[in-house]
Structure formats: structure tokens, C-alpha cells
Design a protein that fits this description.
Blueprint: E1 7-9, E2 12-14, E3 21-25, H1 33-45, E4 50-54, H2 58-70, E5 75-78, H3 83-91, E6 96-98, H4 107-120, E7 123-129, H5 134-138, H6 147-167, E8 173-178, H7 182-195, E9 201-202, H8 210-226, E10 232-233, H9 241-254, E11 263-266, H10 277-289, H11 292-298, E12 302-306, H12 312-315, E13 321-325, E14 329-334, E15 337-343, H13 347-357
Parallel strand pairs: 3-4, 3-10, 4-5, 5-6, 6-7, 7-8, 9-10, 11-12, 12-13
Antiparallel strand pairs: 1-2, 13-14, 14-15
Helix pairs in contact: 1-2, 2-3, 3-4, 6-7, 7-8, 8-9, 10-13
Bound molecules: iron/sulfur cluster (SF4).
Length: 360
């Protein structure tokens, strides 16, 4: 099992022995603090614990203080090349900066950033993406590199960057090694974890649209998390950031690492089905995941929506409660015991009420 050092980001301690935290990134213009804070508030309502924003210029850096005032979660400033943006972001009160020492000019610039981080207790994330590693860019299309070689080069770059900070006696560091390729991401993170105690922020970058991105991310992140690698996770989907958060939690939930919403058991339906199982499940999820209070109440509950009584209550007997369909109606059951019949149009409201009043 890998063991990491601990790094503080806002109220959270990241690293071995602490919960894996869910991160996301805004897709608003950071120069518009209202819109950005609004999106972060929505992400927070969905359970996002750490939020990152792009800081492409000084106007964006200067907006960070206003954003901070309107949100509750730690804020990460994503900065490329300009150390002055990092200094301003730190002054504005961010909790972490994502910046690579190798990309901000002289060592004097890095020293200034480190000094400011130390003063304010701000952590640094070094982010190595396969697409931006200099060596990998230089040989792109000319040399056919193995996935292992890709991983090796990414890790080398991350260690070099981390070493610059270590030399300056700065240890509040998180590293990320991302690629759009499952194997390279896996290899790079494993290789890094074997050589360093720096906690890793894990994710598969540019994972794609909802379904393929969620599947790829689940396999990659799930494999790493099972090995104890990953202090924070982000699922990068070409989708609304809220869905990225939901997917991240579903991965953590499936691995038993975090609780988030109910464990909803529903059957795939078959020729016996005479009720709308799919519509019921969608409507129920819609209600739960758009209502933070209900989401909280439903967390940890096993709820079943089954298509028929032939297999329904039996297969879902370890659910706290559930419904098994008949013809336009269903049998409500609790812990495998059937209770009474319920018309289908009442199912969703009834299950929501049950969630609200159920004693866990
Ligand atoms: S629970 Fe019933 S309706 Fe659903 S798949 Fe199984 S047999 Fe078919």
C-alpha cells in the first residue's frame, strides 16, 4: 500500500488516511465573478469539495477575491507561465495554485511564489499532462513510444518540478499526471506513487462525452483508487460540471470509499415488465440529486425499483424499501416484506416521502 504525506487545502487534509475529495473545474469566464461563484455554488450543492478556475490574465486573478467571498469550498487558481498571476491569486485568498515551476521563468520567480504560498498556507499542484510534456511534444509523430515510456517521461518531469519546490523547502505539494489514455495514466500514477510520498490528484484528461468518458474514467480511477492511489479526483467530461461531480462520487461510492446519495437498485426490465421502471428511476434520481437535503437523507439508503414481483422483492430483499411492479401498480416492500399495493403514478412521491422519514 502506498503512503503519502499530508497536505492541507482549505479545511481539508489530503493524503493517506483521509477521504478522497471530489474536485471539479468551472467552465465560466473567471473575469465574471458572479457567474463563476454561481457555478461553484451549484457544484457545491452537488457535493463538489474543491473547485478550480482558470486564471488566464490579471483581470481573472483580481476577480478571485470576490469569488472567494461568495463560495464556501476551497478555490484553486489554474495558472500557466505568469508567476505574477500566481502572486495575485494568493493575495486574493485562493487555497491552492496549480502552477509548474518549470513554466514560470527563472528560479527567482518560483522563489517568490513559494514565499507567498508559505506566508498564506497555500498549497501548490504541479500538473503534468501528457500533451504538454516538452520531450513528448518534441518527438510527437516521429517516434513510436511505448505507453511505459510515456509514463516514465511524465513521471520524470513531475519529479523534476517537485524537486525544485523540495529544494526550496516547500512540501505542501500535490501532483497530477494526466493523459487521455487509460494505460499511460495508470502507469504514470503507479510509477510516481512508488517513488514519491506526494499525494496525487488523479483524473483522465479529455475523457470525452458522458458515457465513454464515465466508463474510461471509472476504470482508470477505480484501478488507481483500489491500490490506494489518489487523494483527490476529477472526472473530466464534455458535460456540465455537475455531472462530472456526480460521476466522481459514483466511482467513489462503488468502491466503498465515500457515501453519496442512495444505492438505487433497479432491474433492466424484461418481457414481464408492465410498468415504467426506467421513467420511475429517472424521476426519482432527478428529485434526489437536485435537492441537497433529500440527497443527504438518501445517502447510504438502499432503495429498489423492480419491474415485477416474480424476482423483485426477493432479489432486492436487502434493500431498506422498494417497489416491485405489477400491471400499472406495484407492491411496496420493506426489507423483503411486502406491505401494500400502490398505483404507479404515486411511486415517486411515495418513495421521496419514505426517504425523508426513514430512520437509518
Ligand atoms: S425484476 Fe422482473 S421485470 Fe425486472 S428484469 Fe427481473 S424478471 Fe424482468
Amino acid at each position: 500500500m502506498y503512503k503519502t504525506r499530508l497536505v492541507k487545502v482549505g479545511p481539508y487534509t489530503l493524503g493517506t488516511g483521509h477521504p478522497v475529495r471530489v474536485q471539479s473545474m468551472c467552465n465560466t469566464d473567471t473575469r465574471d465573478p458572479q457567474k463563476t461563484a454561481e457555478q461553484i455554488n451549484q457544484l457545491e450543492a452537488a457535493g463538489c469539495e474543491i473547485n478550480r478556475v482558470a486564471v488566464p490574465d490579471m483581470q481573472a486573478a483580481l476577480a478571485l477575491g470576490e469569488i472567494k467571498k461568495q463560495i464556501h469550498s476551497p478555490l484553486v487558481a489554474d495558472i500557466h507561465f505568469d508567476y505574477k498571476l500566481a502572486l495575485e491569486a494568493i493575495k486574493q485568498g485562493v487555497d491552492k495554485v496549480r502552477i509548474n515551476p518549470g513554466n514560470i521563468g527563472s528560479i527567482e520567480n518560483t522563489k517568490e511564489v513559494v514565499r507567498a504560498c508559505k506566508d498564506k498556507g497555500v498549497a501548490i499542484r504541479i500538473g503534468v499532462n501528457a500533451g504538454s510534456v516538452k520531450y513528448l511534444k518534441s518527438v510527437a509523430g516521429q517516434v513510436d513510444l511505448t505507453d511505459d515510456k510515456w509514463a516514465e517521461v511524465m513521471v520524470q518531469e513531475a519529479l523534476e518540478q517537485a524537486n525544485v519546490l523540495e529544494q526550496l523547502n516547500f512540501h505542501d505539494v500535490v501532483v497530477s499526471l494526466k493523459s487521455d489514455d487509460f494505460y499511460r495514466t495508470l502507469k504514470a500514477n503507479e510509477l510516481f506513487a512508488a517513488q514519491s510520498d506526494i499525494p496525487l490528484h488523479i483524473g483522465l484528461t479529455e475523457a470525452g462525452s458522458f458515457l465513454c468518458g464515465a466508463v474510461k474514467s471509472s476504470i482508470a480511477l477505480g484501478t488507481l483508487l483500489q491500490k490506494g492511489i489518489g487523494a483527490t479526483i476529477r472526472v473530466s467530461l464534455t458535460e456540465a460540471p455537475r455531472l462530472q461531480v456526480r460521476t466522481a462520487y459514483e466511482i467513489l461510492k462503488a468502491l466503498g470509499l465515500r457515501e453519496y446519495g442512495p444505492n438505487l437498485i433497479s432491474c433492466p426490465t424484461c418481457g414481464r415488465t408492465q410498468v415504467d421502471v426506467t421513467g420511475t428511476v429517472h424521476a426519482l434520481e432527478e428529485r434526489i440529486y437536485n435537492d441537497p437535503e433529500l440527497l443527504q437523507k438518501a445517502t447510504g439508503l438502499k432503495i429498489a425499483v423492480m419491474g415485477c414481483v416474480v424476482n423483485g422483492p426477493g432479489e432486492a430483499r436487502d434493500a431498506a424499501f422498494g417497489i416491485a411492479g405489477g400491471k400499472g401498480e406495484g407492491l411496496y416492500f420493506e426489507k423483503g416484506q411486502t406491505m401494500f399495493k400502490l398505483p404507479q403514478e404515486q411511486w415517486v412521491d411515495f418513495l421521496v416521502e419514505k426517504i425523508k422519514t426513514w430512520k437509518k
